[in-house]
Amino acid sequence: MARAALPGRLTWRAATLAEFRQETPTARTLVLDVPDWPGHLPGQHVDVRLTAPDGYRAQRSYSIASAWSDQSKVELTVQRLDDGEVSPYLTDVLEVGDQIEVRGPVGGWFVWREAQPHPVLLIGGGSGVVPLMAMVRARGLSRAKQPFRLIYSVRTPGDLIYREELPRHVRDDPGFDLFLNYTRQAPDGWPNPPKRIDVATINTHGWPPDFTPDVYVCGPTTFVETAADILVALGHDPKRIRTERFGGTS
Amino acid sequence: MMELDGNAMAGDLREIFAFEMTEARFTCAGCGHAAAIGALMLWGQAMGRVARCPQCDDVVLSLVRATDRVFLDLRGAVRLELPLAGS
Questions:
Q1: CA distance A72 to A85
Q2: Which pick of A12, A141, A143, B54 has the fewest CB atoms within 10 Å?
Q3: Cβ contact (<8 Å) for B20 and A106?
Q4: CA of B75 to nearest chain A CA: how many angstroms apart?
Q5: Contact criterion met (CB < 8 Å) for B11 and A110
Q6: Considering the domain boundaries, does residue A200 fall inside one?
Q7: What ipTM was assigned to the predicted interfaces of this complex?
Q8: Would A53 be classed as within a structural domain?
Q9: What residues of chain A lie within 8 A of the CB of B8, using their CB?
Q10: What is the pTM (predicted TM-score) of this model?
Q11: Based on the structure, what is the number of domains in chain B?
């Protein structure tokens, strides 16, 4: 006999793909309809589980991209990894009306709560911008006053996720600043030559350590370690730096 | 190759603990470093995870899933510090 689910127990739920948006040639936002979704905080994850016809299962953790509002659906932005087991299915195969299993929201450390009074510095590399975008969206939605800065590093202009929405937040959300860093190829006429983020980037476009900002860094492991080392060298308190790493093989 | 960090264990740990464990702080048995579970360096897949200290690389915890049970090995953590709600 199956045991009854305890209240608050984490369970798998069916999620239906309601619509999708192609963000870049290799990244897609899935808009999921999840009945009885309890809401989530920006930075939280869901686990996604796929089951093959033969019963084989694969499970991955994805950051939620959307801010929670009462009637909203749950959005995940998934970057396709060519040798991946789960991501190519989510970016290329899943169609509107199809179902996947999700459980969550989970996570409480790499999370921004509106009650945090400090300025916020967000540093994202590639699709590491996804949980940071949830924070930017949540701040915009609640008209929170904490100053936010986002340093977003991508290889080329074609890799820019949320390319139309980010400038809208700069325009409409007072106290939100964006700095785009290109590592391989910048748009024509861009003032800065392509380079990886370095001390000057974070020193110029971040907050001074004296402001005691809450810092969130998300991206590939080497990106996260570089940014975190720079932040500590600049005098930021390691306890105020939250990191989230992902690699390139799932 | 190391792909992920302790944040990606949130679901598997939430299945076991009543607390949200990624914001719990571990103290490494190897080097004494203390940080959030979310900051551990994670190897492996959902079937078997090994989480190592970001400071000294020692194994802090491992989690192995079988068909009807889960094995959690915490020998690399001398202490876990858990935030209580409302405090």
A1: 29
A2: A143
A3: yes
A4: 22
A5: no
A6: yes
A7: 0.90
A8: yes
A9: 45, 61, 246
A10: 0.93
A11: 1
